[in-house]
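Incident log, structure service

09:12 report received: a user says their structure output differs between two submissions of the same chain.
09:20 pulled the input from the user's history:
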Amino acid sequence: MKVAIVGSGYVGLVTGTCFAEVGIEVTCVDIDKKKIDNLNQGIIPIYEPGLEEMVHRNVKKGRLAFTTSLKDALVDCEVVFSAVGTPPDEDGSADLQYVLSVARDCGKYMDNYLLIVTKSTVPVGTAEKVRKALREELDKRGVKIEFDVASNPEFLKEGAAVDDFLKPDRIVVGCDSPRAEELMKALYKPFTLNGHPVIFMDIVSAEMTKYAANSMLATKISFMNDIANLCEIVGADINMVRKGIGSDSRIGNKFIYPGAGYGGSCFPKDVKALIHTGDDYKYSLRVLKAVEAVNDDQKSVMFNKINKYFNGDLKGKTVGLWGLSFKPQTDDMREAPSLVIIKKLLDAGAKVKAYDPVAMHETKRILGDKIEYAADQYDALIDADCLLMITEWPEFKFPNFNVMRKLLKTSVIFDGRNIYDVDEIKKKNFDYFCIGVNTTK
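09:34 re-ran on a clean worker, output below:
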């Protein structure tokens, strides 16, 4: 089977590479010539554990290729995955111009039956817009070629995307023809052999499933952050509360860790888009609007703690910052809480000296020289007035506290991910502030 993946960003590159890994012939297409040239030279545009080696291996074996020409990629192709971006418009709705452009281009160049599968996260009703755009192009050509559309939303976790694709919790497919269903069954057969289920449903339900899943996870995060903030006020310990509720199988122990707010390419965008869909249909998603509001506020919590500690005077203070990416094992800075906190610190007159294992290059692209970039985690602490930990990279979990105390001007840690034990840190003679625990009592 020959497959084309349009869009060689995070979703498209992982999808194409993993399909190639199980023996499918894949061509990844992107209009960004520089990105394609780099990929053909073995230069990977994103950081994702295990991906670079897999790309190189499958290119060498002739199963994975990169091009800027969709027309060439469609030769003998049976399935096209649309994995292009759907950035949010100013009103929060998903911008579908790239998705519909892929559909129109398929209509211009296809010569045989084609299954067009939307992999991008798109609002309910997008499949019909894709179908219409493609049919209009075929009508312009005056040809009648059969085609189907389908929805196959991705559920990839950044930092674990390769494993997620190869060993998925579930594969959701929305389609409305037996032919499309058989093609998708054949395509995913290598994955279902290991017991990973493919759940077939109608297209509208598949489109909704992706938004509902991400919004549910975002809701759990905001709920726990809201409870954590109340815990500090009443004197409860959110870490104990988390263990108490996480042992309930109906709740589970995932996504109930308090922190500095969620970010990334999915949760903020998808929550906004689902809220907008509800508004379009005159239905207010009140819970999700609260989820979004809580998350916006949560990104300021750590700044507020630092500002209070220094009595509202941060002018001239230096903050040593550990962790920039929105989560560990990625260089993704989209909607990262660190960016909000850095802006507030700079606006208050503070200086920031930051370190991140992989996201410094991307941060410099965004912030330029507004902050200082440290050579390593300890370099970030030299002459700093405090440590602020935002992203829980593994190497930050067991630092040398004796070295830290010598480097810092003030022995104080602001932990935005609750990775340290309150009592242990206090025994090491640090002032310590985290989320959901009143550490001053």
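09:41 both user submissions now match this output. Likely a transient worker issue. Closing.
09:42 reviewer note: The radius of gyration is 24 Å. The first strand starts at residue 2 and ends at 6.
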